[in-house]
Amino acid sequence: xxxxxxxxxxxxxxxxxxxxxxxxxxxxxxxxxxxxxxxxxxxxxxxxxxxxxxxxxxxxxxxxxxxxxxxxxxxxxxxxxxxxxxxxxxxxxxxxxxxxxxxxxxxxxxxxxxxxxxxxxxxxxxxxxxxxxxxxxxxxxxxxxxxxxxxxxxxxxxxxxxxxxxxxxxxxxxxxxxxxxxxxxx
Length: 186
Fold this sequence. Notes:
Jelly Rolls, 35% strand, B30.2/SPRY, ConA-like_dom_sf, 2 helices, mainly beta, B30.2/SPRY domain-containing protein
């Protein structure tokens, strides 16, 4: 079975942490997956099926996290639905590659930062007795998924070296999506 895979050139960062896909045409089976994957993710594997990836699948509403076996997660998605994926970074989280942003992208990100701060720290609730340093061991973040603007669920995952890249997969013929890598910019 052929896999159509598209991946953004830049990983998500604390400045640009969310993206969306509108299902323009579900094709024959709506085998559309939206998620995050490492830069060197295999181009012949649907997002979520292999190590270093997590993805929400439109056809069955399942979440796949580094395995070909998914967990029931949310509703199925259809033509016209907008699927979203983002990362809730801890407040003090830094990524090695964030310093590599070019000047234009950095200016663009600064402009948007105030607009996304309330989403960025959704999971920033300190619990008594927790060691804040221990919380960030292993570069864990909370990945969340949306359908038509509403959060449907989230999953704690470890960020692979180099970051998580927005990744979209399509498996059946005539599928068509519209991608927005910066939907929070207005």
